[in-house]
Write a structure and sequence with these properties.
mainly alpha, about 5% strand, 3-stranded antiparallel beta sheet, rod-shaped
Length: about 140
């Protein structure tokens, strides 16, 4: 009987150890589940940021292309104002000689030209006739 009691105590101790091991396995599994959920959230956030970055790169590429087109257009517009080197040299020497006698006076910007009054504008009457500056009437 004593031996049977001792064996029963060993069985109970073994069952307690197995129960403790199973509890540790359960806790470790829950921690792994939480870790996997956090990894999943991090990957989702990284995916969102990657998509936002891709959109920003597309916008930047479109803006760069637009700026390139605008720069090309501006270059073409400005090229109409460029003078060849001979004309520039002649103008620079003309400016130098014309201003050489005026060393004491500061250079003033050129004045704007005043608008020249032209013929009076024509007005249309409601009947479809044209009134000229002299007052004569014409029909279309």
């Amino acid at each position: 009987v004593a031996e049977a009691g001792k064996t029963m105590d060993e069985i109970v101790d073994s069952v307690k150890r197995v129960t403790d091991i199973m509890a540790e396995i359960t806790a470790a599994s829950q921690e792994q589940t939480q870790g996997i959920e956090q990894i999943n959230q991090a990957i989702t956030q990284m995916d969102q940021v990657t998509q936002q970055n891709a959109a920003l790169v597309e916008e930047a590429a479109a803006a760069a292309s637009s700026l390139q087109e605008q720069a090309s257009g501006l270059s073409q517009v400005v090229s109409a104002f460029k003078l060849n080197q001979q004309q520039q040299a002649a103008q620079n020497s003309a400016r130098h000689t014309s201003h050489s006698g005026q060393r004491g006076t500061p250079m003033q910007p050129p004045r704007a030209r005043q608008a020249v009054a032209g013929p009076a504008p024509r007005q249309l009457s409601h009947a479809g006739t044209l009134v000229t500056a002299q007052g004569s009437w014409e029909t279309f």
